[in-house]
Design goal:
By secondary structure, the protein is α/β, with parallel strands linked by helices. It contains twelve helices and 14 strands.
Length: 371
């Protein structure tokens, strides 16, 4: 497959609508996606394609800003097309996939290959009524993403070690003390799956108990946690209500639920809760960070990574004011410099660092406050 090369450019503010190409073998899905997106004045569906071969021609003809891509298609599957696209003609891609446990590993693979977002296909976890706003948000995030030409995807490093072995005011006491154990809180959205993988792979097996919110649909977070568990020295699992936040364990908020941390004596417990969406998200980074500020205070450190919007900025400010060490990812290494930028604007971040320096900074801060 050969298409003209295009040099990636830095995203700039848009005046014109976002041009979208919808790629799906189902006529019904193409119609639903097109109609859902066309309801938004800032989005223009410029064409559709039934498979990757048609999509290749439409990309050359229409020069879309964003592509929505199905995974299961005739003649060439979506993952193969995505891999070729990101090597030869990189464009922001939103994968539209059925939200099932069977398909979640495939969706995570798509993110690893360079897709910016993954959302639910109509008829799975999202109804047609819910789809419009969710899809539009994903397209807007993708349109601001920084995409680069990729080499052939590498397999997971062989050297990776595999280890498979509420009350808001209750934590004032331990939050104000210098406890032996610490908590690391991480928040991310667009581009965060890869950023979190890179960060967590730098953590040692006995890293402080870690709690994570990655904006991700239901069904995907368990597979995401399982993948991280296979790649990282510390154990990683999807959080369950009542899990203890302990050294050597990272807990990923389940999709569709908020994750909060509460004090239990001198220890911390993860609580998985329902509740309204915050910044259009559930789980929300602000909900987690605010709970960590109340429950752990100076015993916590936090990083806010790549993502669109403002989720996590106010929560990070609350953490800093409670004595926590906080880091925002810098613009140059973000896929979308949205959430970290809002934290910087609020002066919520003690440091602003490139992704490859964040793990070291967090672990150093933990050692300093423990000494």
């Amino acid at each position: 497959m050969s298409v003209p090369l295009r040099t990636p450019v830095r995203p700039s503010p848009r005046a014109a609508p976002i041009r979208v190409l919808v790629v799906d073998d189902s006529a019904l899905v193409r119609r639903i996606l097109s109609e859902s997106l066309s309801r938004h004045e800032d989005i223009d569906v410029v064409g559709t394609a039934t498979d990757p071969y048609v999509a290749r021609e439409r990309i050359v003809q229409l020069q879309p800003d964003v592509i929505t891509l199905d995974i299961e298609m005739p003649r060439m599957d979506g993952l193969s097309f995505l891999s070729k696209l990101m090597r030869h003609f990189p464009l922001p891609v939103v994968v539209v996939s059925s939200l099932t446990p069977q398909n979640s590993e495939t969706a995570l693979r798509a993110l690893a290959l360079g897709a910016v977002e993954v959302i639910g296909k109509p008829g799975s976890a999202l109804s047609a009524g819910d789809l419009g706003e969710e899809l539009a948000r994903a397209v807007r995030a993708a349109s601001q993403a920084r995409v680069v030409k990729r080499a052939e995807p590498a397999a997971a490093a062989a050297s990776s070690t595999v280890f498979n072995d509420g009350a808001s005011g209750a934590a004032v006491g331990i939050a104000a003390l210098n406890a032996t154990n610490k908590i690391i809180a991480l928040g991310a959205s667009t581009g965060g799956t890869i950023a979190l993988e890179q960060l967590l792979r730098r953590f040692p097996v006995d890293a402080p108990g870690t709690v994570i919110v990655q904006h991700m649909p239901e069904q995907f977070t368990r597979s995401f946690a399982k993948r991280l568990d296979q790649l990282c020295a510390m154990r990683v699992q999807e959080a369950k209500d009542g899990d203890h936040v302990v050294p050597g364990l990272a807990l990923v908020a389940p999709g569709g639920k908020h994750l909060v941390v509460q004090a239990s004596g001198s220890r911390w417990v993860a609580r998985v809760k329902d509740g309204p969406k915050v910044h259009h998200q559930r789980p929300a980074v602000d909900v987690l960070f605010q709970s960590v500020a109340r429950s752990a205070g100076r015993n916590a450190v936090a990083a806010l990574l790549t993502g669109m919007g403002a989720d996590g900025a106010k929560g990070m400010l609350m953490m800093r004011e409670a004595g926590a060490f906080t880091v925002a990812q810098n613009e140059e290494t973000c896929v979308v410099y949205g959430m970290p930028r809002e934290a910087v604007k609020l002066d919520a971040a003690v440091q602003v660092l490139p992704l490859d320096r964040i793990a070291e900074a967090l672990l150093l801060a933990v050692r300093i406050t423990t000494a």
